[in-house]
UniProtKB/TrEMBL annotation:
<dbReference type="Pfam" id="PF10387">
    <property type="entry name" value="DUF2442"/>
</dbReference>
<feature type="compositionally biased region" description="Polar residues">
    <location>
        <begin position="117"/>
        <end position="131"/>
    </location>
</feature>
<dbReference type="InterPro" id="IPR018841">
    <property type="entry name" value="DUF2442"/>
</dbReference>
<feature type="region of interest" description="Disordered">
    <location>
        <begin position="114"/>
        <end position="151"/>
    </location>
</feature>
<protein>
    <submittedName>
        <fullName>DUF2442 domain-containing protein</fullName>
    </submittedName>
</protein>
Length: 151
């Protein structure tokens, strides 16, 4: 019985320390306070504890692409404020990762990059045509030292 009480007290102490650490981090690391889906913009909008906000297109968040407006609108902020959760989609995204431009796993990000590189637009086509008219880029001039240049 004494061991059980000691273990309970130790667990309570660890929990209190974890909460204190979390509170300390929250003072200098922004946490999400509110989030919603803006169907007009197709964006997830997140409000932060430092009075800033950011948003990202739902289509680039792993697990959100192709989801219905109803499902996207059910975004919740996790109790710690460090994540976003969609229960119906079974999707969780990290706020710090999102703020660093990481919208999913490495595999997901590689797929996004591949799609981005393959995209075409009038501006991209025109830039390519203009670049092609310039010919090869000149090489770097190579200067060889001579005996006279040595000190």
């Amino acid at each position: 019985m004494v061991k059980k009480i000691a273990a309970t007290e130790e667990l309570k102490e660890k929990l209190a320390n974890a909460r204190a650490n979390s509170d300390a981090i929250a003072t200098f690391e922004p946490r999400a306070t509110r989030a919603f889906y803006d169907a007009y913009l197709g964006m997830i909008i997140v409000f932060l504890s430092n009075k800033c906000m950011f948003g990202f297109p739902s289509e680039i968040g792993q697990g959100l692409a192709g989801a219905s407006v109803k499902d996207l609108a059910e975004v919740e902020v996790t109790p710690s404020g460090e994540g976003l959760h969609w229960k119906t989609l079974d999707v969780d995204l990290s706020i710090p990762a999102l703020m660093n431009g990481i919208f999913g796993t490495k595999k997901w990000m590689a797929e996004l990059a591949r799609k981005g590189g393959n995209s075409t637009s009038n501006a991209k086509s025109e830039a390519s045509r203009l670049n092609g008219t310039k010919g090869d880029h000149p090489g770097k001039e190579i200067v060889l030292a001579t005996d006279e240049d040595e000190v």
